[in-house]
Design goal:
InterPro entries: MPAB/Lcp_cat_dom. By secondary structure, the protein is mainly alpha-helical. It has one domain. It has 15 helices and two strands. The protein has a two-stranded antiparallel ribbon with strand order 1-2. Strand 1 and strand 2 form a beta hairpin. The longest helix is centred in the middle third of the chain and has 23 residues. It is globular, with a radius of gyration of 18 Å.
Length: about 290
């Protein structure tokens, strides 16, 4: 696997810093997080993450996915938004809480501070963005995808993945991705987490209505081998529903008002501000 092209590297933080500098500013990623349609890629990213046994075991033993979906979504949104557009003060607050939590999530064969796990997490986020982009808005040009890859390193470096671990080209990335998809093992823990993720309990009505749509795209986007091991292969009905959903979205989404396209993003940005204030007051965002 090749190292990132040196001309794109910015100086890294000192060794005792909580994060590394990104390869480049997340210009494309800002337009992604501001657009709610990209939330549809969340489930497929998480299921790909759970295909790593260490990530699945850490989540299974240290959280209750079925009962915490709204909170997990808020926490993930806090991370994504602060990574892409947060101030230094906001990053320090949010990353500090995340790193403290990760320090407690460890066992004999898993450790949430393992940079390899952060790399895989970042890779799944990148692929989920590409899936949404190319499904609903057309294929990406090679240069645009290369730029997005460089920007997406920030998902890993913000979790303390050393920058040199990130693939330096699309060829290197797909080599890394294909190897993991071919070799990672979906465990019983991962299958249990998948069920909790796709069929959560006590979900607010404002979120529950989107679940059938999210499940349709998720089972059709999952890599074939993972879908088989999760026992989530698309049925004929879900394939037909997927084709119809994609066609309808491509037709109607461009004419939606911008405020509607980013409504949930604005809610998450307001939540981020409140979370930072609470962290500065109490040292944690608990209670929000």
């Amino acid at each position: 696997m090749t190292e990132p092209d040196k001309q794109y590297l910015l100086p890294n933080k000192p060794n005792n810093s909580p994060i590394y500098n990104p390869i480049t500013e997340p210009r494309i990623l800002r337009s992604v997080v501001e657009n709610d349609i990209y939330l549809l890629g969340g489930q497929v990213a998480i299921l790909c993450q759970f295909a790593n046994p260490a990530l699945a075991k850490g989540s299974y033993k240290h959280s209750s996915v079925a009962d915490q979906i709204p909170q997990r979504l808020r926490n993930t949104a806090r991370f994504l938004n602060v990574v892409v557009s947060g101030t230094d003060e906001e990053k320090k607050a949010i990353f500090g809480v995340i790193h403290k939590y990760h320090a407690r999530v460890k066992g004999e064969d898993y450790d949430a501070d393992d940079p390899e796990l952060h790399k895989w997490t970042a890779a799944t986020l990148f692929v989920s963005i590409v899936l949404v982009r190319e499904t609903f808005f057309g294929r990406m040009e090679k240069e645009e995808m290369e730029d997005l890859l460089k920007e997406s390193a920030v998902f890993g470096t913000s979790l303390r993945m050393p920058l040199e671990m990130w693939p330096g080209s699309m060829d290197a990335f797909w080599e890394y991705w294909d190897y993991n998809i071919a070799t990672l093992q979906v465990t019983d823990m991962a299958r249990s987490l998948a069920k909790d993720l796709l069929y959560p309990r006590n979900l607010p009505m404002g979120m529950a209505w989107m679940l059938p749509l999210a499940r349709v795209v998720t089972v059709n986007w999952l890599p074939e081998r993972l879908a088989r091991e999760y026992r989530l292969q698309p049925t004929l009905g879900s394939q037909v529903a997927y084709v119809g959903l994609v066609a309808w979205t491509r037709l109607t989404y461009p004419v939606l008002p911008a405020a509607l396209k980013g409504r949930r993003h604005q809610m998450y940005m307001e939540d981020l501000k409140k979370a930072v204030q609470r962290i500065q007051q109490t040292g944690h965002w608990a209670g929000l």
